[in-house]
Amino acid sequence: MRANAGNVGSYGDDALSRSLNARFGAVFETDVAAFPVVTGTAANSLALSSLVAPYGAVLCDQSAHISNDEGGAPEFFMHGAKLVTLPSADGRMDAEALRTGLRVNAQGGILKPPIHALSLTQATEWGTVYALKDLADLCAIAHDHDIPVHLDGSRLSNAIAHLGCTPAEATWKAGVDVLSFGGTKCGAMAAEAVVFFVNDRTRPVLKDFERRIKRSGHLWSKARFLSAQLLALLEDGLWLKNSAHANAMAQRIVEGLRRHAGAQLPFETQGNEVFVILPDRLVEELEAAGYGFYRWPTPEGVSGTLIRLVPSFHTRIEDVDALLAEISA
Amino acid sequence: MRANAGNVGSYGDDALSRSLNARFGAVFETDVAAFPVVTGTAANSLALSSLVAPYGAVLCDQSAHISNDEGGAPEFFMHGAKLVTLPSADGRMDAEALRTGLRVNAQGGILKPPIHALSLTQATEWGTVYALKDLADLCAIAHDHDIPVHLDGSRLSNAIAHLGCTPAEATWKAGVDVLSFGGTKCGAMAAEAVVFFVNDRTRPVLKDFERRIKRSGHLWSKARFLSAQLLALLEDGLWLKNSAHANAMAQRIVEGLRRHAGAQLPFETQGNEVFVILPDRLVEELEAAGYGFYRWPTPEGVSGTLIRLVPSFHTRIEDVDALLAEISA
Amino acid sequence: MRANAGNVGSYGDDALSRSLNARFGAVFETDVAAFPVVTGTAANSLALSSLVAPYGAVLCDQSAHISNDEGGAPEFFMHGAKLVTLPSADGRMDAEALRTGLRVNAQGGILKPPIHALSLTQATEWGTVYALKDLADLCAIAHDHDIPVHLDGSRLSNAIAHLGCTPAEATWKAGVDVLSFGGTKCGAMAAEAVVFFVNDRTRPVLKDFERRIKRSGHLWSKARFLSAQLLALLEDGLWLKNSAHANAMAQRIVEGLRRHAGAQLPFETQGNEVFVILPDRLVEELEAAGYGFYRWPTPEGVSGTLIRLVPSFHTRIEDVDALLAEISA
Amino acid sequence: MRANAGNVGSYGDDALSRSLNARFGAVFETDVAAFPVVTGTAANSLALSSLVAPYGAVLCDQSAHISNDEGGAPEFFMHGAKLVTLPSADGRMDAEALRTGLRVNAQGGILKPPIHALSLTQATEWGTVYALKDLADLCAIAHDHDIPVHLDGSRLSNAIAHLGCTPAEATWKAGVDVLSFGGTKCGAMAAEAVVFFVNDRTRPVLKDFERRIKRSGHLWSKARFLSAQLLALLEDGLWLKNSAHANAMAQRIVEGLRRHAGAQLPFETQGNEVFVILPDRLVEELEAAGYGFYRWPTPEGVSGTLIRLVPSFHTRIEDVDALLAEISA
């Protein structure tokens, strides 16, 4: 409502939008260039398109959202550049696998698109969180190969809440060059941001980045309504408070499930995502009771149904407990 | 605030979003498929990309927003399909020019991308409005060549307010197949819609249209916040009331300018855009007094500065009168 | 030299080019539309781009040339459509894996690009050849899902020579809809062809296929020089005779290697490609003796160097025997 | 036939292909990087794609082949970057028009794709030839704006033959950065080349240029057969001799037409293209006599049929005279 007052310039020429870089810079304790957009898919795809030539490629984990869940958006924004995936056990890329991937790609010569960016996800798609040391190792390998690092931070706030570190330590201090900052999952109506940490790898692409936003229809004429959402999340650490609550609810779910003999937890829950394999009949009964689940492909050789439970900033303890009681019953 | 209540499905699976087709259908008195997006550039580009193969082309007026003012977005979404422009006097395409354009294109054979869509703009970029008969003639020519018609309706509400017709008469009854419905200029925070009028030309592309939205990062997870804006505008004709006010303010400006000897009005003001050529010194004095203008290239052989004055739904009479008084003084 | 005589029309309007469809039709015993191009990469990429929307995907084996060895060309021609790969033991896709791949993709809904084409390779990248029954099973599954089948036939002639079947049996009678016909590997300077077998799945894309060729810079003004190469190969079965010779040389190599204790043959040689793992030192000694090899990544847990030996239409028995003698020595 | 001897490396790793840079460098008297391709459309599109970002634009004359006659290939290779055209009287861009075009584009800010390259054509599409001084002026303006210059030299040999200058004077000495070298029109089966004159503007894009060739299916495995054509043309100035003959035949046609009262020559013939407006009935009679013409759109207000006559390296004097005699009769 406050953002709606008065006549202001368009396309980001308003006081709220002009204050974004300073606010993000203060939170991340460094010089940044922040560009708001409405979806994580847009943030990831725009960020990567600024790093990768159309004839290039991105290296990412096989579980990456950019590879599996964005309807081909990265390939659209990158004009056909390829996503090359590496296998991992739990969504966290292994340093040795990264080195091998880079070597195999280079051996392919002109037959393989060259790797122009490394994209990591924190927290990962399987709800795990990279230790800061492991994140730094991966970034260092990339930089040794002259490759910049993008971080899909759709759930960065959950990872920071889990790690108990600063936003700076979780990103550029570990070697991240460009961040997809997630705001929607931690409270915004629809607000994410591409945050460039200004350095020699990112400086050349900053100048024209807004052109890519305009060209994809993501530049708001009334930009203040987008900026206001991000500013509110960053004020007094609201984004982190919201995510700490979501993480706590996830832990409560995990603890409850551990008491249930039929529940298998294939991954460690470190953010706000709980993956659990439940007996088929139990899942059906819960559905009959009104719950709804997205089913994941169950790993080979395992019986039961793999579902994901994702508490958020507005998940209430009583709703968690009601679900757990229903499972026990 | 009302849209924010409760837990609902994502990606459009909520009551507000599900009601969009019915609401748009009621307003336009026909069967429609409406897809909300945040910018006019996204609406235009997505709509055209569903009609035009990458090796095809769009025919449009040389003044068209898609050709001049969208940073190359249509070419991005259409994967390089070409915008072929036709000259016009005041932004309104001429039927004979359209026939010639289609003939010249066809003669080029394999050397020229084939025309796959006609894109018109109502109200036009120069603030003029097609008569319904002229609009229908152009659509008929396109349909005779098996070409669907897209309407850039960023200012459709202003055109309808000017014409005093129904939304149906202004669109599908004249032959329009796909509409970029403008909501932002007539009051929304950021809400437009691609509205397909369901017929044999549009039916084949409806099925996968949401995939194009997802792939361009324009699919909101919390879609209700986008849908709510459009529903509010369509309720009780708010979009048209807002635009009627904007048009009235534009007429008030025109009347004031006509009393000023130094003002030349190169186009008829029929919507809410006033184009006026003022003496250079007057423009500079107004700027010194705090007014800001976007300068247009002045036509050859004319002296003075061409500026555009665009009142909106929230322009007040007293502000219009203050500007006119300043000009007179 | 004969093709160089006289003045003829350009862009395929010459007697040689006009005779291509009839010649290919006679060889394949059905109605075809054949389009010559200079490389297999162009043939594969153009063929797939005509079947797959930019927001769609192609299903192929993880060993496929289109996925690994064409520098991202398919993604370029398809405007970012995705290649989704399936694992296999020896380059031959398994029917059950195909069914699973299609099911997983469909479950992803709007988050995953829909499968618009199945691309198979015959002979495969590992030198194996699909039995006609297996090929037909895969095509039937694709057709059951309304998906057309593309065959990368860069080494189709080697497969036909191995199978002892007719070109028709090896392609459209098994269910192939579009073929990348390989001419360069069996004798041409640079000549391949996209061959559409005319049916309800291919008919809609034939009309504009030449536009895609033009738009990618692959339409020759002096097309007769390209057509002449294909006509010569198809005359009196020259393409098959050349490939039978190459296959025979490959078998001679295999027999020789089998007598060598240190050689491991990971795949069955059915066409003209021999993959062999030799002791590292032996490979180095051969290189010192003047031989050159392309090294493949050696499978995990295996010691030695994986190389590929590919005899061709002009490989002489004495050269094969010299190599084998060198290895024995 | 000579190129067909022996076993050589693929993808350009053969003696003929490796000698291209030296041969082109000797002819153009400077350091070059030359990349052979089969069509002028591929040469132009690849060259421009290396200079222009997908969100950028190319400035060219409204008559340019890249804009009118290549089926949208430049837009395909440039991933949707825009061709912005400037009007001219006879295909030769005017320096003042260029300055205006650059200024208008810059004023558009983020709404207009930025100009990343200037593309000129020599000889032009209307058969005229830029004076070296005019070419140098245009290049200097572009360089002043940090914009590299591409020259479509499909008929460069005709222009050089007309100007009587050296290849170096006609290109890099005037400021050209990248040349589409035309070989097909002056004698090759199908051979053109993208020739980069190595300087600070071109050096950054050389490294990955071959990747663009591979990615568009234009990299020949048996590259020697493409290289051999270019080497033959460059030997002993064959390309220029062939074009001098074509120019002379064009002049003979012009002289003959000047003697015919009904013939109007709208442009000066400086290369090998003669544009002539003949009475409709005369054109029909010539067609009845077996001649074939491509009809151009006749300028407004002029009666008659505009046709183009293009003699080539193998046009014989007796055939020219026979046509002229037929016209006189």
Automatic annotation (TrEMBL), chains A, B, C, D:
InterPro entries membership: ArAA_b-elim_lyase/Thr_aldolase (IPR001597), PyrdxlP-dep_Trfase (IPR015424), PyrdxlP-dep_Trfase_major (IPR015421), PyrdxlP-dep_Trfase_small (IPR015422)
Coiled coil segments of this chain: none
UniProt keywords, alphabetically: Pyridoxal phosphate
Membrane as UniProt keyword: no
Entry keyword annotation includes Secreted: no
UniProt domain Aromatic amino acid beta-eliminating lyase/threonine aldolase: residue ranges: 2-276
Cofactor(s) needed for function: pyridoxal 5'-phosphate
SUPFAM superfamilies tied to this protein: PLP-dependent transferases
Family note: Belongs to the threonine aldolase family.
Subunit structure, interactors included: Homotetramer.
Name of the protein in its database record: L-threonine aldolase
